[in-house]
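User: Second chain of the day. Same drill as before.
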Amino acid sequence: MNSSVLSSLLPVVLLIGAGFLAGRRGWVTGGAVRDLSNLIFLLLAPALLFRTMSTVHVEQLRLGPVAAYFLAAGLIFAATLVVRGFNRTSAVIALANTFSNTVMIGIPLIGLAFGPEGTVVLLTLISLHSLVLLTSATLVLELAVAREQARQPGGARTPILRTLARAFYNAIVHPVPLPIIVGLVFAQTGLTLPESVDKPIAWLGQAFGPIALVMVGITLASTPIGHQWRAALSQALIKNLAHPALVALLGWLLGLRGLPLQVMVVAAALPIGANVFLFSQRYKTAEDLVTASVAVSTALALVTVSVVMALATSL
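Assistant: Same format as last time:
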């Protein structure tokens, strides 16, 4: 097994394991799980997303290498909705099929495997990853929620333009897309945050990854994976193998070669990110499946990422 893969993934597995132990021992009760989820979703994630985007200058982004990644993600996301139908569960599963753990696992892994040049390519992807995928998923989820509410007994039929406008508003004024957009706009002003403000925001953002992964473990402790393992394995295989394979194909067709394409393929092979788990909890759908899928995808990545990295060197 590639040592860089092991050194990047092992901390993630250990954090999920620590959460699993806490859940099994009853150190965190059911009510506290929801409160912790709100803390992560409403405070820690916005801090991380705002700070990440607050230093991104649009003119410095190398968009060519990330085109294959987002094109592949868009095709998989759309195919999932077509196969499963347009509803909130399908939208969350589609996000699980396409959203990689690019920060906690991706940054150290790509840095070890491809050096500074590869890290620059990955950071370009990271600067757009949440903006594109999470904002798109939020819009789809809000549209699905509006559609479900309209179909309920006694639910009023709302004109389609009003439904779209409300869904778009809810997708923007939201704990995930809003800090991304505000951070991106702030970056274009050329201003920098005072250290006294930047430091606490940085601390909050740094707390996101570990606490979110511990939460996955806590939820996993009460999730009957025995009933979910087949579906979770299917999700993990789509994310860990189908996604990078499609990125490689599309990148090759777009004329990409060498290190930029290799980084995008490995990024697509990374396991499901914890943000998907938070979305499933936020929208109260597919929580058991997503929890199991994050765990299975992360464990499976110990093997699949090594395989993808070995194959990617020929691109």
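Residues 110 and 116 are 9 Å apart (CA to CA).

User: Great, on to the next one.
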